[in-house]
Amino acid sequence: MKAFILEKKGVLATRDIDIQESVGPDDVKIAPKSIGICGSDIHYYQHGNIGDFVVNEPMVLGHEASGEIIEVGSNVKDLKVGDRVCMEPGIPEAGSRAVFEGHYNLDPAVRFWATPPIHGCMRETVVHPASLTFKLPENVSYDEGVLVEPLSIGIYSAQKACIKPGDVAVVLGAGTIGLVTALAALGAGCSQVIICDYKQGKLDFVNKHYSDLMIRTVNPANEDPLAVVAEITGNWGADILFEASGSPAAILSCMDYVCPAGTVVFVGMPPESAAPVDIVKAQVKEITMKTIFRYANVYDRAIRSIASGSVNVKPLVTARYTFDKAVEAYDFASTTPDDQVKIIIEM
């Protein structure tokens, strides 16, 4: 089948690949229709690895996807040929302890699309467990189906934060994950979210497309974000901080934004495994620190949030390329233009 392949660091190709996948009784076969370019895809393209995950052989890219079912296994009852679906890309080991304890995203044996050595889904067909395949409501487009994956990270982060109605949250980082986390936090009950980023183009995007929401954007190059938080909260501090940039400097500053007994959720990953955290400031305020890794048990919630209109992800799709222009799309995404959020490949 035709597939979009990372041959090795810095080398992409659209070519035929032989992938043998049979449809088991609990599986479905899907023809992908829309696939998003994720930051992790770009990182593999530019660097050839993310931590210990190293591209040692050609790998099909893509893990944010939606498509149409073209075949179903004999045990599948709730899905049928022709259904429009999106797919949760992490497949845990059936019967593992992580699965039984409800933390299947933490299963050490999880097989996640486009994470070496697992092929991704930017190809003509893909076989996937029916249990991780979700039907899209009629009013949710294929592009919105792609955004279910990043939105799930935001919703999972909001769940971890245990948001209460009226909470004020700060999000450090206005990339795709920072934006969906802010939208999820508002959807979960926050009265206001403050988004901080040095990239003014990202903040301009937020102000243009989400001016109707209680989002305050701050560029630390132009104004003091701590002063903004103090003004909004009456010098108390934010109830919650989501660190979505992965910047070591931002991570070190987290405790300054949060009120006594507040919560910090680490969402972004720093370029190195170690990053400084001010433990004393956290102790003095008794701040609760939480981490997330991908998501679990939230894909259906993300779909319902989009379908109901409570979370509007449509503006996040800022560019589209056809499958035959995928190399061009990745080269464009690699320049990380500030006015771009999610770039879609149409299959």
* Percent of residues in helices: 25-40%
Order of helices and strands: EEEHEEEEEEHEEEHEHEHEHEHEHEHEHE
What distance lies between the first and last C-alpha atoms, to the nearest angstrom? 13 Å
Approximate strand percentage: 25-35%
Mean pLDDT: 96
- Which consecutive residue ranges, at least 5 long each, have pLDDT under 50? none
Helical stretch tally: 10
Q: Strand pairing plus helix content: what structural class?
A: alpha/beta
> Which sheet architecture does the biggest sheet show?
7 strands, mixed
Shape: globular
Number of strands: 20
Structure notes:
The protein has 347 residues and is of the alpha/beta class. Helix content is 29%, strand content 28%. The protein has helices at 39-47, 97-100, 142-161, 176-187, 200-209, 225-233, 248-257, 279-285, 299-308, 326-334, and strands spanning 2-8, 11-16, 27-36, 49-50, 53-54, 59-60, 64-72, 84-87, 90-91, 111-112, 126-129, 133-135, 168-172, 192-196, 215-218, 238-243, 258-266, 288-291, 317-322, 342-346. Strands 3, 7, 8, 11, 12, 19 and 20 form a seven-stranded mixed beta sheet that branches. The two termini are 13 Å apart.
Quick summary of this structure?
The protein is of the alpha/beta class and 347 residues long. It has 10 helices and 20 strands. The protein has helices at 39-47, 97-100, 142-161, 176-187, 200-209, 225-233, 248-257, 279-285, 299-308, 326-334; strands at 2-8, 11-16, 27-36, 49-50, 53-54, 59-60, 64-72, 84-87, 90-91, 111-112, 126-129, 133-135, 168-172, 192-196, 215-218, 238-243, 258-266, 288-291, 317-322, 342-346.
